[in-house]
Design brief:
about 80% helix; mainly alpha; Growth Hormone, Chain: A; about 450 residues; disordered N terminus; globular
Amino acid sequence: MLGMEARHVLKSLKYAWLVAVILFLFRSFHQTDIYVISVVLPQILEEFQITYALAGAMFTATTVLSVVFYPVWGYLFDRYSRRLLLSLTGMLWGLTTLLSTVPRTFAGFLAARALTGADNTPPAGIHSLLSDYFPPKKRGKPFGLISSAGAFGALLGTIVGVQIGYALGWRYLFLVTGGLGMLMAVVVYFVVRDVPRGSSEPELSGLELKEEAYRIRFRQIFGLVKRPSMLFISLQGFFGVFPWQALTAWAFTYLLLERGFREFEAMLVMLVWLTSMIVGNLVGGAVGDFLFSRNISGRAILGAVDVFLSALLIYLTITWPLGDVSGFIILGTLTCFVMPMAGPNVSASITDFVEPEARSSADSLLRVFETAGSSTAPLIVGFLADIYGLGMGILMISASTWVVCGALFSILVWIIRKDITKLRNEMKNRAEMLRKTYEPQ
């Protein structure tokens, strides 16, 4: 029979996974809301009579607003209740999406759609909260689940985009995805519990922690950028997300307009590819945990190998002969399996060297770097598409930036060890101070 302590650990782990699943659904439906516009983009191009470049500007405007709000949300998540703030972002997601159904001119639609970027920051709070539910060597798997939400959300977005968007119109589609935001806000508020920051750190195990004990101080935000690991993980993010922005905006349109698929056929291809991405995220998180348990640079090593391989595979996929549809789908499926493996390991790596009370801010800092550069990707691809074709625009952006990202990951492999060791020593110091605090005088 299990002892009381073992049963408590098992119960805590079950609840931790329940929280992870709820946050996975929150993130998935949010990604569905973000992605569906890519599925119905041909409708929007036709209704407003705009070029690829103007459509790219719409995506870029939304992403730029996200960059503005990332540091604000990151700081708030490190200071206040992550449960309440996640619920608030869900409400904002719903309201801004519903608002974008109102305008009848492209200028009005552009302004309304840009506002949806204000709530695109849940990953900062989600990763921070999960890092306090799962210990360091077990974070890759739940982080892989959260990372797979991007692909799962896009998969759902493809289905509802085709089934609702092409049947009833894109405005009815946005009413559905906006309503999901409000629903998930309510679910998170009533089911998810906050836990004290640092709860899962092994050095603090068995010690009483108070929720207010560790909260970020404003000066800590500026100290984050001075850490070599934070600098290089942010720089790789600057280049590494260019392909994702380009593919999110243009992949479905590419299948329709350049590969010659019909809407339903393109939906089926996307379902296969996105399912492969989901599996790739989960496998990447599990492999990252395995490598990290044997080498503290293991997550960075996996990231370097993954992005170099992704650059090669996307080149082969885009340049595959138009006549070989089966070969194109199979190669695309392999590419989609490999591409996301670095993602959960980047997020987990931040929790490996950043203090618990600063992880949302660190995650947000990474998102600023990622989005500040990659926000221009849809626009650049749009310009390149008008000149060279959509496929070549996607390829030029994706392959080139992933090669640079791989070089930066290779440097990170060597420098992250020192910062991880420094955090573990800091946790030991905190544990010692807590023990002294509770010792009888």
